[in-house]
Structure formats: C-alpha cells, structure tokens
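Schema walkthrough. Field components (list of strings):
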Amino acid sequence: MDARSLKLQQLVEEADRIFRGKVVSVEEQTAVLAQGDDRVEALVREVTIAVDEGLKNVKAGDRLVVKQLVSVSAPLQAGEEVFWFLAEDSELGLTQPLGVYSGDFRIQDSGAGKVANNLRGNAGLWEDSLWTGDGFVRQDVLRAARTLEWSAARVESIEKQAVQRPDNRGISLDLLVAATRSLIKSP
Amino acid sequence: MTSRLFVSLSIVVVLAQSLGTAGGPLQVEQGAPVLWNVAQPIAYWIDGGPLGQFPEPVPQRFASDAFDTWAKVPTASLTLSAARLPEDVRTAARYIALEKDRRRGSVVVFDNVGDIVRGIYGKGNEKHILGFATPRLSGQHFTRFTALMNGFLARDAATVRSTMVHEFGHALGLDHAQINVPFAGNGNTNDDQYLPTMYPTSTDDDATLIDLNPDDEAAVSRLYPNAAFARSFGTIRGRLVRADGRPVLGANVVASALVGGTEDPMQRYACVSDYLMHADGTFEIIVRPGTYRLGAEAVLPKFGGGSSVGPYAEKSSGESFRNPIRPTTFPGTHVVTAGAVLDLGVLTAR
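Field assembly_structure (string):
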C-alpha cells in the first residue's frame, strides 16, 4: 500500500479519537455492511479495546469496539497495548488508524520503560528534535506532562529524550503522550 | 508479507530451481516464492470512469501502460490481458463485493474522489492513501489481485503513474527493495533515477519511478524468467551470519557493480538475508554480469509494516529490527558471469 507518512501534528489534528488502551478481543466475522442502497457481506474484524487513557473524544474506562475490514487490517492480537489515532468511522462503520501505519502505535516494555513504535518505524513524526520546530512548544509539552502528575524525574526524562532525533524505534511512551497532549486544544 | 515454513519433498525441488532474487518476492509459502502461473496470460478488468482530474480513458491507459512496463522486461516471461469492466465502481460496498468475488478475477478500480478509500479506511484517510494492490493466493500460486487507485490524491500524472507501476509490481508478486536510500527524499531530484521502482516510499521526483531500474528488472525476471534470463544474469549467493555463527535473518545485502573501480549506483541489486525463511541466513542476488562489491546493512526501521522490506520486517518486533547488524562492506570484488552462480559461502556481518 502507498500511504503517506504523517507528522504527529497531523495525527493529532485529524484524528477523530486518540487513546491508549489494551486490546481485549479481536473477532472476525461476516457482517452486512450497508451504504445507501448498497449492501454487502464482508469479513469484518471487531476489535474491543479497554481504554486506559483517553486524549481526544475518548475517556479512560471507555470500552471501544472498532470495526475494520479484515482484508486491509494489520495483524493485531488480544493483549496488545496500542496508542491509536483513529479516523472517524465511515458510513459503513469501518475505520483504521490515520494514515493506516502512521497512526497505529504498538506499545512494548523495553525494560527501561514503555516505548511506542508505529507501523512506519516512527519515521517522519517530527523533524530533528522535538524542540526545533514543527509547532511543538517545549513549555506546553512539559506542562502537559505535569498535568498528568508525573514525577519530576519522569518529566526530566521527557526533556532529555525530546532532543534526540526520533527516526529510530522506541519513542518513549511518556514523550509521545506528553507531545500529543500538548497539541490537543481544549474544547 | 506472510509465510509459513513447511518442509516437504516439493520444497527440495523448488530450491533446486531457485536462483535467488533481486528486490525479493512479496510472499513466501513453504520456503518458496509465491508466483503467478504464467503459462497463460494474467487477465484483469479495468474499472471505468475518471480518476480525480483525469477523465476516462486516461487512467485506464495509465494502468495498462503500468502493467506493460513489467511485461516488456526483455528477460521476463509475462503476458497480461486487460478488459474493460462493464461498470464504474463508485462505492466502498461495490468495491468490497468485487474484492470478494473470486469468479470476477483481478480488478483495477479507480476511486474517483476517494469515496471508496474513505468508506473502507474511515473518514479522513482518503487524504493519505494513494493506492494499493493485493494479490491473493491459492496454494503456491497467486490467482487474482485487487488494486485501487485513489483519485482524491491524483494531483499529477507522474505520481499516479509511478504509484501504479509500483503497486502493480506488488500485484505480480514483488516485494520492496532497499537500495540507494540516501537519494530518497534528500531534496535532490537529479539522483532519484537511482531509486528502484519498488523502493518502499515515494521520493522527490516520482516521475523517475515510472521506469524500472536494473534491480526491478532482475526481480521480475527471476520470478518469471524467459529463455534470455540465464544469458543475461548471474547470481551471487552466500549465507550471512553474526560473529557467533548465528544466521542473520532479515538484513539487506547489496551488490554494487564496479565500473572503472567506482561503484555504479544504477547497478545495485539487493536481497534480504534468509529471504526464503529457511532460518539459515541465505541470500541470493541476481545481477547483470560484471564485477561487484558486496555489503550488508540493517533494514531501516521505517521500512516496516506496509513499507516492509523482506519477510522479517512486517512487525516492529520482527527479526530485521532486533539486534540489527552494523553496515558491513565485505572485502574483495567478485566477478559474475551470465548463467553462473558465485557462491561466497559464509559472510560475517558486524
């Protein structure tokens, strides 16, 4: 598939829902999809996600059921922890992470804390360090981290990580969350 | 790219015939590349209607030209035949119905204004997905494909045409190729000619990706060789291992031709180590006759998921990204002649 790499700013701006959560179940079944007068049976994947942290249009504690066409969906298993920037459901009730790959982050424990990788290897999320452009304001990111009542050490760790080029795998989940929150405007 | 390892007598027969790859096969089953049965033409239907700003018959011509680009490779045996689909597919529901309909066969669909992409991928994703092509297999062969081009993003002919040639390469069973990475997206359009069409992403000047590069031609010719293939290409084979002897799974091995002692960036060919998933680190690079220098490097982290290079890069936890090797240039140069297999034995990566 030819899908564009999206910057974090685009993901935040365009996503309908942003959240971190655990995949409770992944079930594939034939479903009837309706669009106007058109009706078609298709193999659809229903992903149930228990939301641990809601950042945009989702709250912690929500239970989301996301419907995806199986033939175009990336592998996913129950028990996985994801950080998703989700597109708005289509008329058929289907959706995918924004940009398909860019908005689909999988969270793993690196042994030194949780890290997040999207299906693009985090390429192009932001240029150079977080502080040198792309609309991230250092104080906003750190303030976002402090509102989460993280420890001083955790906030300091974000500041150090942000000066590194994010072209490699394993962006700290804390950095991703803080940077994302700093861009979300209050309603 | 998916695969299942399964040992059987039939695999031994396939391996005996295997001469390796250039960019690599898209899918591996039972230790062998999945191919089309090219004893007969690969037939496909082309959707009617416009594609964004391009009125019929322009996108239809782009599509048949894109397939012809592959079929005209002089060392490949590929015949494709197109017929006009007796409808203009406009909705996601209709596209899904076509995708499911095995009796229909292969289809190229033009999503005029992005409605189909939006219907399948959610609202907003029509702004980010240029197109896709998915071949489907039965047993060891591909039997049909569905391809879709997104008209919402069809802003210029070069991007549309290069996307088609690239996606149709996937439809024919080709994987991505990681070659000449420094030239991609560096702001310099003059060096984009050195990027193969099956490079994982677009670049500064997509027009250069419409024409095939030597690695593309080698890749399709290896999968579907004609009589001229063995007279035109040779093979560099080896096993890539780590210092402790463990095989390297999913690293990128590149052969660069030397002309007058200098590497020719146009004549670079690649193969992912253990590309057939035998767990032994084997690579086999198809090259034009000449003198070559060999190197190995990790598959880049950004070339995972839908941009994956090789069978071990689909997931961020894949072998390609676990303990990646350091860039390694192997000593010496190697002369390859047509029809010959140059076996370098075991090569140790850094």
